[in-house]
Amino acid sequence: MAVAVNFSAQALQQRTCLREIAGLAVHPLPARRSCQLVQNRMKKQPHGIAVQRQEENKSKNSRGTSRIMSSNNDSDLIIGPPSAADTIKHFYTCINEKNLNQLGGYISQDCYIEDCSFYNPFNGKKEVMNFFDLLMRSMGQNVKFIIEHVCEGDNFTAGVNWHLEWKQTQVPFTRGCSFYECSEEGEKLVIKKALIVIESPMKPGGVVLVLLKNVTTIFDEFPIAAEWFLKSPHVILQTILKIYTIFLAPFVNPLVAGYVGFWKLMAQLFGFAIKIMIYISRILFK
After folding, report:
1. Distance between CA atoms of 182 and 157, rounded to whole angstroms?
2. Can you give the C-alpha Rg of the chain in angstroms?
């Protein structure tokens, strides 16, 4: 009789314990684990989980990470300030829509953009806006930026890899990566700094590795000169440019000018031929 009562009390206690932890336990507890130990863990775990989740939410909100929640109508609602990724996506949308005025709202006054296709960076909002104005004019009406991936980091940073498409057809040699650093300006994020790397149409392949090996060999043989060169490369390049201007420019510049002029003429003739073909096709296929 006593054994039966004791067994019933233990079974009731185990059922009560299992009901209390039903919302937390994922795997069934071992039969020999005491309920008191489980209850002690229950007292510790929810508080720790809640504190951890609160800290994670605070850190996300402090970084401006936007939360996307699904409504009953299966639409996305963005709650909170925009993230760096959202800002960059809207930035490229403005470029594709050729909306220069709206684009200016995503550029800070002290914006600094370094495009590896240009020798000099664009410093200040005026230079940056002139650059994007020229870019949008060069793209025409049918060329669009297609974002492949957006990776967001800490401190309002984001990286994007993209390519250009003309009427949903990828344009060759237009793949690129851009890295952005944003800053808070009121209740929105603006682009403060950017680095743009574009695919080169020249594919030297193994020649680059051979050149790198030769350069590093020279650096290893003359470390003092290598350190001086790496600390002040512009001084050496300016010296080489002066030597070129004095001794080689009088002979090389006319050849280069003639070469450039020849290809300009060829480009004009090619454009003129395209216009004639378009005009003839319109007449024939009316």
Report:
1. 6
2. 32
Question: Which residues are within 8 A (CB) of 282 and not within 5 positions of it... i.e. 6 or more apart?
Answer: none
Tracing tokens 């344009």 back to the chain, one arrives at 171
**How high is the pLDDT of residue 42?**
44
CB 232 within 8 A of CB 225: no
For residue 132, pLDDT beyond 50:
yes
Pair of tokens at residue 162 = 């993209």
Separation between Cα atoms, residue 113 and residue 122, nearest integer Å: 5
pLDDT tens readout for residues 157-179:
999 999 999 999 999 999 999 99
